[in-house]
Amino acid sequence: MRVIDILRQKGDEVTTIGPNPTLEEASRKLTLHGIGALVVSNDSVTVLGLLFERDVVRHLAVMGRDGMDTLIADVMTRDDHTCTGSDTVEDLMRTMTDRRLRHVPVVENGRLCGLVSIGDVVKRRLVELETEREHLHQYIQTGR
User: Fold this and answer.
1) Cα–Cα distance measured from residue 124 to residue 129, given in angstroms and rounded to the nearest whole number
2) pTM assigned to the model
3) Which among 5, 12, 76 is positioned nearest to 39, based on CA atoms?
4) Domain 3-142 superfamily per CATH
């Protein structure tokens, strides 16, 4: 299975934000959309970084309430790790586990085309396991 299969199922909508709004604005956007990460981009095409809920929380733990006025660019994770639609989900799972990533942007030819979360990967894997279980059950019952 490939990353593109996950995007086909969940869709390719990605919530982005520029690097210059404040953490207060980003927190509102995270809450409004019920998500755990924003892709930071000036043009909704090029990935500059990601802003995770944990980035906000860690910053506020150090700065207190005044930290909400901090620009996203000063706090965002600048990890340049992305994947492509043709990457295998197994490779993506390994990378997410090894690098402790919960969200990975999907980029094709330098253009943002989706975002895959660990929840998306787990959901897809559970569907695969259930299908495999059903096939094994049928084989045991019918011998075919």
Assistant:
1) 9
2) 0.85
3) 76
4) CBS-domain (3.10.580.10)
